[in-house]
Specification:
Order of helices and strands: EHHHHHHHHHHHHHHHE
Number of strands: 2
Strand order of the largest sheet: 1-2
């Protein structure tokens, strides 16, 4: 549907969301290809590292895209609820809308993951489906007290940790081949932390059952990246952190107090996440969204929010971030364009400009040139929508 922007929007959230979406859209730059072509350059190696996900334990900048997007869903929920109730003044109508939004997100995620497939690819580890699965619970918790919200977060983190910890480790006869992992993979964890190893954990076992309930081209055995459906549960924890932040933003606290709270929570999340990972109690793994990852990535999200809130809403420097605002105010459109339209753009550029047009600055930079042009086209489409006040909402 199409709506117009309203003056009550939280501008810093739009800018932060635009920053996150830009990181996702910038995958077209394919910095790893530049790094491979220039193996002696530590500069390109650094950029390539942060434009990819870590293999298992740890964090790169790219790993913070999904938690930031999820966190922001929670941040804007208090504003969304207030706006919706102001229009409809009816909880049940508002809740039905939340359920509809959840369903659309799930179906859109499945649709985008089914491109170029022979049949529908029922998969639920995508960012949109993960948010969609948890959104109804987040919505209901949006009406609860701060104590209930924090209690729900604690229950989610401890309960999810316990479920993995109690799931048995692989036995001597475990079939690693059909799990898509190597027994002696260099990123495998040992000791108690092994309960969170790739494709030998509770979430993987659940998907071996759950995903095979749907029609598939072939039986589901494993996800190559280790991603899992059940990650929507701790992702709800990340959204709850955002909800806590959103409630603080809507409160009567001074801007300085809000910044102080965000910084304290941000640093605390980082320190606690590092300690839990270092101690072996729970590793910091984004791909299966461990409780440690909720705290660690949530720490970064609080710090990012503090920065954007300070510069955009307090210092009123929103014009500095206009490029990001254009993207952030149409995040769903940006997501669909990047995920479903860029392959067409890429092919069209080579058709009309020539297969080797991007090598104008040399072979090592051809992917960079091609990617920048694609990114520019994507942004111009979003800018046109912004000028026309065409904002896709779900």
């Amino acid at each position: 549907m199409t709506t117009k922007t309203t003056p009550t929007r939280l501008a810093s959230a739009d800018v932060y969301r635009g920053f996150v979406m830009l990181l996702m859209m910038a995958e077209v730059l394919r910095l790893h290809k530049v790094s491979e072509a220039l193996p002696d350059s530590s500069f390109w190696q650094f950029l390539a590292y942060h434009q990819d996900h870590v293999e298992w334990v740890g964090c790169a900048l790219h790993d913070l895209i999904q938690p930031s997007f999820s966190f922001l869903v929670g941040v804007v929920l208090p504003y969304s609820i207030a706006s919706r109730l102001g229009k409809e003044n009816n909880f049940w109508k508002t809740f039905r809308h939340a359920l509809w939004r959840s369903l659309i997100l799930i179906l859109l995620g499945i649709f985008l993951r089914s491109q170029w497939k022979e049949q529908t690819n029922f998969t639920f580890e995508d960012t949109l489906t993960q948010i969609g699965l948890g959104y109804p619970f987040l919505f209901l918790l949006g009406f609860a007290s701060h104590r209930v919200q924090v209690s729900a977060l604690v229950v989610i983190l401890i309960g999810y940790w316990a479920a993995f910890a109690l799931y048995p480790l692989p036995g001597p006869d475990f079939d690693y081949v059909n799990a898509g992992v190597i027994k002696d993979w260099e990123h495998n964890l040992t000791g108690f932390a092994a309960h969170w190893n790739k494709n030998t954990n509770l979430a993987w076992a659940f998907d071996r059952w759950f995903l095979n309930l749907f029609p598939r081209e072939e039986p589901f055995l494993f996800n190559g990246g280790g991603y899992a459906t059940l990650s929507f549960i701790p992702t709800l924890g990340t959204m709850l952190l955002g909800l806590v932040a959103g409630n603080f933003l809507k409160s009567d606290k001074t801007p300085q107090e809000k910044i102080k709270i965000f910084v304290i929570l941000g640093v605390s999340g980082l320190v606690l996440g590092l300690l839990l990972n270092w101690s072996g109690i729970c590793p910091n793994v984004k791909r299966i969204w461990t409780p440690t990852w909720v705290l660690f990535s949530g720490g970064w999200c609080f710090l990012f929010l503090a920065f954007f809130y300070w510069t955009v809403d307090i210092l009123q420097k929103g014009k500095w971030f206009f490029f990001l605002t254009v993207i952030g105010m149409n995040s769903i459109a940006a997501y669909v364009i990047a995920d479903g339209f860029n392959s067409y753009v890429s092919k069209s550029l080579k058709t009309h400009l020539g297969q080797n047009y991007a090598a104008i600055f040399g072979e090592p930079y051809q992917f960079l040139v091609h990617g920048f042009l694609m990114l520019a086209i994507d942004w111009l489409i979003l800018k046109w929508m912004y000028n026309k006040k065409l904002f896709i909402r779900i």
